[in-house]
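Pilot study result, target chain (128 residues):
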Amino acid sequence: MCYTPGLPGTQPNSTELLRLLRDDGRPTVLRVLGDIDMTTADTFSEGLRATARSAVPPGPVIADLNAVEFLGAAGLVVLVQEQAWCDEHGITLRIVSSARPVLRSIKVTGLDATLTVSRTVDEALTHA
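Predicted structure:
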């Protein structure tokens, strides 16, 4: 069944709620568009891990979340797990966002002390 917004009985799948665009240049950038919640966290995790695996240490790998409209607990878990994976493999992970929903989720959970968050890709590269 195809998802139709507003039509009862239809459900969106994760690819309709979240888009991942990867740029394998240097640095490696994953641009994320949509919502990151429990229905899309696996897609986000797989995309971020694949991006990190393609990076040459020390990276950086940049997760550009500027077009993310919602970052739920499941998405925060992915960020923490991928930060740990990158640390273990000598890769620098940088989160980019100036989007209020993303910044707020990171701040209220205290993850701003753990994750490196920049407002722009250029700013993230300066700190890489």
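One observation from the pilot: The longest strand covers residues 61-71. A full batch analysis is planned for the follow-on phase.
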